[in-house]
Specification:
Elements: E1 7-11, H1 19-34, E2 38-42, E3 56-60, E4 63-67
């Protein structure tokens, strides 16, 4: 997949996908992660990615903050 880079960047990657394709993509991301690769996902909906993310950061007023809890 994409010649196996060490780092991937996605922006709202699940938007427009049906539930089956979302599940398949999240499984692919999880497998990619299990092989020691890093992934950055930009999204307005972090709850959709809870099963595959390790950390969440928020950008607000040009500053980056680590999010400890998702409401």
């Amino acid at each position: 997949f994409l010649d196996e880079p060490d780092f991937l960047i996605f922006d709202e990657v699940l938007n427009g996908l049906d539930r089956y394709m979302q599940k398949l993509l999240l499984e692919t991301i999880e497998n990619y992660k299990a092989n020691g690769k890093s992934i950055l996902i930009a999204t307005h909906y972090p709850k959709e990615y809870l099963e595959v993310i390790d950390e969440i950061f928020e950008i607000k007023n040009k500053k980056v903050y680590k999010v400890e809890k998702i409401d």
